[in-house]
Amino acid sequence: MPSRGFFGSLFDLSFTSLVTTKVIKFIYVLTLIMLTLFSLAIVFVAFRTSTGLGVVVLIIVAPLWWLFSAIYARVSLEFIIALFRVMETNVELVALKRQQMGLTPSSHAGAVSDFGAQPRPAQQPSYQVGDVVNGHRFDGTQWVPLDDA
Fold first, then answer.
1. DSSP letters along the chain, please?
2. Binning pLDDT at 50, 70 and 90, where does residue 114 land?
3. Can you name the residues that pair with 132 across neighbouring β-strands?
4. What average pLDDT does the segment 106-117 reach?
């Protein structure tokens, strides 16, 4: 996948460069700041209601709520990043498989990466008699599995 800067990815209308992986750290820090401010607001409201409730919220409720919320936010963001890494690995595996099969990397790339563009026709590779691809040998008319012996 092409590597672009933040603004290059943000305004990439073909969606070949993704912005989520570039802003995920900022989103996490912003989430932690918002959780902290909300926890402080809960403590403030509890102290305005009564001193006893304020102490309980300050020592028990607010820290536990903040901790569980931070864990939930972190796990959610890690799940999103894991999906992006799986997608990137899948793109690399498909490119490697196409290379192993003798297909040119650009013969199918247009159909996937150019959002809204007309797909380019795939070029059929020309195989020679005796070529071996994926454990099969081409005999001129068909692919014959190779013997494992």
1. -----HHHHHT-TT--S-SHHHHHHHHHHHHHHHHHHHHHHHHHHHHHH-HHHHHHIIIIIHHHHHHHHHHHHHHHHHHHHHHHHHHHHHHHHHHHHHHHTT--THHHHHHHHSTTSPPPPPPPPPPPTT-EETTEEE-SSSEEEPP--
2. very low
3. 137
4. 49
